Amino acid sequence: MNLTIEEIALLEYVYDQAHRDIRRNVDVPANAAGSVEAMRDVARRLVDVGVCRLASIADDLNITQLGLDVVDDLRQQRGNRPARAAELRLAVIQWLYGHYLDGSTPQVADDFLTSNRSYFAGQPFSSIEIVQAVVYLSEKGFVEGRTIDQSVHLIQPRLTAKGVDCAESGKPVSEFLNPSQSPSGPTFHVKIDGSQNVTVGTQSNFTQNNTSGLDPAVLAQLVHFATVARQSLPSSGLDEQQQVVVEQLSQELEEEAAGEAPDRRRLRRLGDRLIEALTPTAETALGGMVTALGQQAIAAITG
To answer: Does the predicted model carry a pTM greater than 0.85?
Structure first.
């Protein structure tokens, strides 16, 4: 679920004030500028995506079960230090790539803190984390710049040709450094009258290096399920809001499964939610196959 920093901050405020009680009313606070009305606009967006609901005409909020799950997931993600470091390295690469395209150079790496990439799971990266990321990227040959008196701080950091290649590949830094081949398997194409082709079968171009101990083949199944769910949307018969939910859940499932340290419980939770979101399509030929694909993938998580 793609929430802005403001939305995450308000959702977490409601979460903390509600103490996990979905019936407890929480007043909408003022923002940093002292505007309650601006925060009410943020609150309405949270209601629109289903993580909160209006509790009264005074715009008090209740957190929903989905909202509790979202905050739990965010806070669990923040504790995943390998995933946090991997996200920061890629974010720094993409930030410097923007400067590369503009023909500009930031003065210091800490300028990254003012960019829109300086958050992980709604929480800002620290200056220390940024220094560590830049040092790592420099040692691996992605970033170069000037130093003073053997300091680890890079002045005017910029991408090397290798860094540009990494940015344009769209791959995480670890995957760019260590490309691997995943097992291939059979695929088949399903053509439903009046719809597009959707590829269903074993995912064949998934690569991943994970530290979670989960079987890469199982993670490949989950990524493939998420991809197929997304591919099937134009032919699903779901309304616009339902399609948005499927799109968001499939993206989150794919990102978690393809990450460096995927969490088994979160994979199961996201997979279950995605199957639930696809339930209205289960009676159709395509929907039934996509749902079955998801059920097989989720069952494989727990063996």
So the answer is: no
